[in-house]
Amino acid sequence: MKLRDILVNREERRPRAGVRLALHLALLVAFVLLFEFAAVLLMVVTVGSIDSTQGMVFQSATTLLAVTLSVRLARRFIDRRSMAGLGLQRGRAGRDLLFGVGVAAAMMALIYLGELTLGWARFDGYAWESAPAGWLPDAATWVVAFLMVGWYEELLTRGYWLVNLSEGLNRGLAVLITSVAFALLHAGNPSASYLSTAGLFASGLWFAYAAVASRGLWLPVGAHIGWNIFEGVVFGFPVSGLTTTVFIRQTQLGPELWTGGPFGPEAGLILLPALVFGALAVWGYTRKRS
């Protein structure tokens, strides 16, 4: 077999899946470095010093630009396919986004109420009671950051990677590989552990199921956005090790094995019944789709 046949699919007239993924990765890294360098220069010239929350927004914005532009260019010039082929069809976009946000909110509410019932969490009040002036702008900043994170993480993992790996291997292996990659992307977060990585792998499986069952990317995008916002900003849990501005102030009292401790519910066994509920909800919502 010739080298060209190994690298190029002659029938499809484009590189094979592994080559496509490698080329996109190189493009993504280049854009991340470029946009982060430009953002640092912009901050130094116009803003000066920034706090950690503003830094989170800047980092999210640069990553969003890098992921979105790299995927767009890769689909056009490497994959030779449309963005809609990643599951970005417009027909059910609004409904799937709203359902995704709603089911994630319900899952997080179940976790919070479950911990309160079991005595694993203590309600300490509301944000405005301790910070009446500053909590709302800070909370809005986190919401904006999580909107961006939900988009670019899903576009990359359940979008570009899942589609190309499914074409090059099969859907089952693609789901497993992208879920492992999703977990490893968060392995450097504060308070990360083997349990948090396992929990994020399980979460990645659920997001992938949402993408496959809905035959699109909008439902997992909405679910990812809703999960982060309701986990951190609304119910006051850590979000994959990150401490956010919160609406409900709470104290964790339960065993870390179950609650996830400083990393948040993704590192605790309490995540599992929530994922089961979420999977059943997605199944009920999408079961009539052909």
Tags for this entry?
single chain, 290 residues, mainly alpha, two-stranded antiparallel ribbon, two-stranded antiparallel sheet, 4 strands, globular
Radius of gyration of CA atoms, rounded to a whole number: 20 Å
Q: Provide the number of structural domains.
A: 2
What is the H/E order? HEEHHHEHHHHHEHH
Strand order of the largest sheet: 1-2
**Main sheet summary:** 2 strands, antiparallel
Note poorly predicted spans: none
Structural class: mainly alpha
Residue-averaged pLDDT: 93
Number of helices: 11
Shape: globular
Taken as a percent bin, the fraction of beta residues is 5-15%
Portion of residues within helices: 55-70%
* Total strand segments: 4
The CA-CA distance between the termini, in Å, is: 39 Å
